[in-house]
Amino acid sequence: MKSIIRIGMVQMNATVGDLNANKGKILQSIANARTKEVDIVIFPELAVCGYPPEDLLLKRHFVQDNIKTLRSIVKETAHITAIVGFVDTDKKGNIYNAAAIIHNKVIKKIYHKQKLPNYGVFDEARYFTRGEENFTFCLGSFCFGVSICEDMWDRKGICHEQVKSGAQVLINISASPFHTGKRKEREQMVCRRARDEQASIFYLNLVGGQDELVFDGGSFIVNNKGTIIASGTSLNEDFICADINTSSLGKKKKILSSPAFSVVLSFKEKRKRAAITCRKLKALNKIEEIYKALVLGTRDYVQKNGFQKVVVGLSGGIDSALTAVIAHDALGKNNVVGISMPSQYSSPGTQRDAEHLAQKLGLQFITVPIQRMYQGYLDLLKKEFHGLKQDATEENLQARIRGNILMAFSNKQGWLVLTTGNKSETAVGYCTLYGDMAGGFAVIKDVSKTCVYRLAQYRNRVGKNNVIPESIIQRAPSAELRAGQKDQDTLPPYSTLDAILEDYIERDKSFEEIVAQRGEAQTVRNVLAMVDRNEYKRRQGPPGIKITPKSFGRDRRLPITNRYRPMM
Amino acid sequence: MKSIIRIGMVQMNATVGDLNANKGKILQSIANARTKEVDIVIFPELAVCGYPPEDLLLKRHFVQDNIKTLRSIVKETAHITAIVGFVDTDKKGNIYNAAAIIHNKVIKKIYHKQKLPNYGVFDEARYFTRGEENFTFCLGSFCFGVSICEDMWDRKGICHEQVKSGAQVLINISASPFHTGKRKEREQMVCRRARDEQASIFYLNLVGGQDELVFDGGSFIVNNKGTIIASGTSLNEDFICADINTSSLGKKKKILSSPAFSVVLSFKEKRKRAAITCRKLKALNKIEEIYKALVLGTRDYVQKNGFQKVVVGLSGGIDSALTAVIAHDALGKNNVVGISMPSQYSSPGTQRDAEHLAQKLGLQFITVPIQRMYQGYLDLLKKEFHGLKQDATEENLQARIRGNILMAFSNKQGWLVLTTGNKSETAVGYCTLYGDMAGGFAVIKDVSKTCVYRLAQYRNRVGKNNVIPESIIQRAPSAELRAGQKDQDTLPPYSTLDAILEDYIERDKSFEEIVAQRGEAQTVRNVLAMVDRNEYKRRQGPPGIKITPKSFGRDRRLPITNRYRPMM
């Protein structure tokens, strides 16, 4: 029997812990799906409570409140099938990363995630018990399986079992965080799975920023030949909808060994629906995607934490310029304040550039010179430091005065301080703890200096008016903490540094492997030693947006006390 | 056949990553065991590389270096059996938390840990593959099993299987971190296991500080009736040795179903050994144990990170006084510097007390007044803050000036800054980020204010000379950041606050449960809201020593972006 099934995927931006707001979005989307005559409406992994809720999951009342929220959603599912991610529990108090399959105001079945990721940024084995049951669902003559994120990543795994049990369509709800190249990885994996299993796949991903993670959406639908037939936007909420003609799905597989348990849902085909056209969006290029991830991650961190305005220290350098532009794009020009805090070591060029940038962006711009405060500290400590040479102490003092000033504005005005450190300097500790590292959110913390330039150029290219003055892009990087200082006095050229850092941090390569590939043993040795030595600084830095396969933070958990020095 | 087997447990302080130093300790202990005519010498879990190595385990070269280190240890095991914790690997690149059973220069077998803790501070599922094989070992007529830490915590689990396969003695090597009451938990569990299985148990625990964790040792030996017959010191290195008369062990069990694989080790009984007398130490009381854990944790953090001296801001309050005394006990008076940084809000009493404390301890004492710097910031920001009321901004400025001064001494002199915040204020955010929170190590971060007083009184009682002046203990707590300020203007009394915090943080109780038990809904609501709101501060604080079942840090992983507000 031929029939048409309409499936809609709600690529939503859930907020961790905000059960009411998430419920509101879910109900609105169900209503919207109903007006579009959708048969099955799908929500992302843990849509009810947001992802990842981390140790909120250890609070029994949190889990109970999330279940209450789900129950109140169930009541609103008249004449529709909804698949909703939430946290389930059992009598023993175990909890599960779960999907409720709800049909016409009744929870027909709850699926428990079977593959629990526990690497990188993921800690699911800390919380969840592994599910053990597999199901297929029949809506009239149409048969589908439901799985959660990692469940689909194994060949011949859970989805294979669902297909063996008759599933023609596989639905996967995910919360898969962004890093460069991740969307392609997902698409390749899902298309391969579709070809392997000769099944259509509806892949739905969460969207939105949560602390260091950005979920990038980019949900899509693949036919049983492994071709993407519809896709959602990256880094925005979206609704992706398709009609499935059951006659096009090929024969239902015979039920073979180890079948998934089959659940029958009553079905009455809707008549006379206007056909839905699938959208297929062009993928973003690498730099565009990173830029948009930074904008979304910044906006969501600021707003989900209840802030409206942010403040950025503008030095006239490229890092603070890029940070300010991202903040401008995320929050609007009226919600970003730039503060210039020049010292005797600041060049007229950088000061002019800082002001110029603020003007171009239309930001409030405040100047607070720090020379007198700096001299004050020097006088205060003169006696104690008598006879000792000038060193990083004096440089750090300047950075910390600036940190204090920014934090004073933050305290007084309720503005969130955005820090401006990039991944290259965070890696080697070329930054001052409680100085330029002081602030609530580190927008470009996972962006290498090399990539900072590419993002700046990209933004100038796509926007009007070259908002980042060319002189900022051209000037040799300097912290301007002593006369004539340049980054390259202390660090190798950024192209060399970034290549070494990528090998060491993202690929966990050894000293010998890096030297073999990049040459220059002494440079490599110095860089690796700086990275190791500065773990304590990074541990006290603010969170920032992950854009690479391995960022500092939950993603890379090295001990501070660590005497492993293989390159010495 | 009756024989005497001598088993020695090396309760050692390993350092994470310091393969050479750990190897040195292991070889020295093997030599020492040989002079004591020991048959089996035992080392703690991951003794070769230290525990927990965290993401060092993701570096293949680290794992390889640890295996090379083990191999070089094997060569030094002539005529002795050694059980050594290390990281094993297989051809697929999986890694295992392992124990090598080495006999006369040959690795006879490698046991892989089967129960991998992945809760609280533990992330073992992130790294290790679960072992699946179980063994027993026969040394002459004597038969024993080896397990690693968590392996023993299950009833009828791995140890049961070893006993069913003939093991008369169970050897467990652990790295079990300290919190109050933990030693008793361990002893009760192990004694129960010994009674259940009618087997003797040798329980060996690591000792030493590693970032936020202190491993407290306290290794012990239990007979097959479940009675402790020997025990090692808490919070110190030790060597615990006992003779086992195989005839006293009762009959070897018949081998029943699912036997562990049996490994036979050649054995020649040593003649004419002088008998060994077992030591049984009195357990420390709760406060004494916490105090010693703080001393060890501080000493190891400072020294393992290559520092010699520390600096503490001495306000004349109880928190900084206790921190300074702990540092003094950990490092000696010549390695602790006290800095007083009075403002116009500092009372003559607190300034006198700070100096008095430093004198009693024999510390270098420096005074750096902050009034002028404070006035400098006020002048600098006057225009920008014109017409705005005085608030926490001005208080934070003072704290941040002090933070800058301490960090300047740290930068200039290479001293590590110890922060002085307790758990109560860290919980509710009654502290200044980049101000009093600025520093490398937070000694009493997990110690509630109530417990701070008990520790101070304990230290005065056991030491000479009442080092903490009574006036410091008696004075009502104040941050002295504005005229007449007292902690209790802002916070509930500490006894109330600490009780609420314990329920909320350590027991994950809900608002309703806490109100039901502690009354005063509005107080509870305020406290819980402060805890939630200040997650961002704690995330940027320095590490500190875990002494409770749930500390801030790896132990409690809450999102910063978290809109769960069930009590609103």
Report on this model:
Two copies of one chain form a homodimer. Chain A is α/β, with parallel strands linked by helices. Chain A has two domains: about 5-285, Nitrilase/N-carbamoyl-D-aminoacid amidohydrolase; about 285-485, Rossmann fold, CATH 3.40.50. Helices cover about 35% and strands about 20% of the residues of chain A. Chain A contains 18 helices and 20 strands. A seven-stranded mixed sheet of chain A has the order 13-12-9-8-7-6-15, with helices on one face. In chain A, strand 19, helix 11 and strand 20 form a beta-alpha-beta unit. In chain A, helix 6 (about 285-305) packs across helix 7, helix 6 packs across helix 12 and helix 16 (about 510-520) packs across helix 17. The longest helix of chain A has 22 residues, at about 390-415. Chain A is elongated and about 85 Å long. The model of chain A has no long low-confidence stretch (mean pLDDT about 95). Chains A and B meet through helix 2, helix 6, helix 9, helix 10 and helix 16 of A and helix 2, helix 6, helix 9, helix 10 and helix 16 of B.
